[in-house]
Design goal:
Layout (H helix, E strand, L loop, with lengths): L1 E6 L4 E8 L8 E8 L1 H4 L7 H23 L8 E7 L3 H17 L4 E5 H12 L6 E6 L4 E8 L2 E7 L5 H11 L6 H11 L22 H11 L7 H30 L5 E5 L6 H12 L4 E3 L10 H13 L31
Parallel strand pairs: 1-4, 4-5, 6-9, 9-10
Antiparallel strand pairs: 1-2, 2-3, 6-7, 7-8
Helix pairs in contact: 2-3, 4-10, 5-6, 5-7, 6-8, 7-8, 8-9
């Protein structure tokens, strides 16, 4: 099967064609992506209206480019997938309407993909991985621990009750004047610094359950930023990453226990989402699984950030199960992977 995927949920416009007959690691036939960093840099953050207009301007060209690289036409496709949510609703609308139009004109199935499911299933695109597995989803908008039991079956074990870890990275970087995008800038600064130079809090460390909290850590960075010298910024960033790593490792240890209670045969921890590209976080996670009989799977960094291949693959997985969508599908700004999860106090829309 060959599926075209379109991703427009935030500030990357992306398209890709994937095929399931190739071996793991070779299933992306062609892809194209356009980052909007330069358009948003003057504002030190993403402006939804600018993002939506950029998606509208470039999506058709990027679809054509991805299909040309893949060497396929619409007649060679089995379906067209697009991010149906969650995300900035203007951008999501652009991708959904583009995919619907193509599906209608070429008489192909339309597949509305949950953006978070795209991240969650990326490990099955890159590795031969069976269900179930434990997932740490870390991005600018979400920080969650989930059990992935199937293409459309997720059990949430924990979520952030305030800021997502990517949000804490970006806002801390902005307070420190590190530029945009903040996460990669803060990681680069941390690599030059000394861990432990600043005594920062570890929110939720040792607490029961698997929930996260990063608001207090971000506030501690702000307080330090008001008084430190410029030559101490790298050390503060390194101390921040150390705090994040220790908290995430602790929460994952709790989640591994709950995962094994439910699935004793489970053996894999997957990390996905934009922050999964962070090398320090990967190191802490590897050390965590090294103390167990679990293994860690982390997709290549370019497949951690938003991309069309993950949407195409999630669409292909849904298509194999007959989980297609009608053309009256409505784009969703919020779309939880586990809608039946007990609400986490304070989590709000990030639940």
């Amino acid at each position: 099967m060959r599926v075209l995927g379109i991703e427009t949920s935030c500030d990357e416009t992306a398209a890709a064609v994937v095929c399931d007959e190739a071996p793991a690691g070779e299933r992306i036939l062609g892809e194209a992506i356009l980052s909007q960093h330069e358009e948003h840099r003057p504002y030190q953050g993403i402006v939804p209206e600018i993002a939506a207009r950029s998606h509208l301007q470039h999506v058709d060209r990027l679809v054509a480019e991805a299909m040309e690289k893949a060497g396929v036409g619409f007649a060679d496709l089995d379906g067209i997938a697009a991010t149906g949510g969650p995300g900035l609703i203007g951008g999501v609308i652009v991708g959904v309407m583009s995919a619907k139009a193509m599906a209608l004109v070429h008489d192909l199935p339309f597949l509305a993909v949950n953006h978070l499911a795209g991240h969650a299933l990326t490990a099955r695109l890159t590795d031969d991985l069976d269900f179930p597995y434990l997932l740490l989803l870390v991005s600018g908008g979400h920080t969650q621990l989930l059990i992935v039991e199937g293409v459309d079956a997720f059990v949430r074990l924990g979520t952030t009750v305030d800021d997502a870890v990517g949000e804490a990275y970006d806002k801390s970087a902005k307070m420190l004047g590190l530029g945009y995008p903040g996460g990669p800038a803060m990681e680069a600064a941390a690599a030059r610094g000394t861990t432990g130079a600043f005594n920062l809090p570890r929110p939720m460390l040792g607490r029961p359950g698997c929930h996260f909290s990063f608001s207090g850590l971000k506030t501690a960075v702000r307080r330090q930023a008001e008084s430190i010298a410029a030559d101490q910024i790298d050390d503060l960033c390194a101390s921040f990453e150390q705090a994040v790593g220790e908290v995430v490792a602790d929460r994952c240890q709790k989640a591994i226990g709950e995962f094994r209670d439910r699935h004793p045969e489970g053996s894999t921890l997957v990390v996905a989402g934009g922050v999964a590209a962070n090398k320090t976080l990967r190191r802490y996670l590897q050390e965590t699984v090294d103390d167990t009989d679990m293994r860690l799977i982390a997709p290549p960094p370019k497949l951690c950030t938003d991309n069309g291949a993950m949407i195409a693959w999630a669409g292909l997985e849904r298509l194999r199960l007959g989980l297609t969508d009608k053309l009256d599908f409505k784009p969703l700004p919020r779309w939880p992977l586990d809608p039946d999860a007990v609400p986490a106090h304070g989590a709000g829309v990030k639940a």
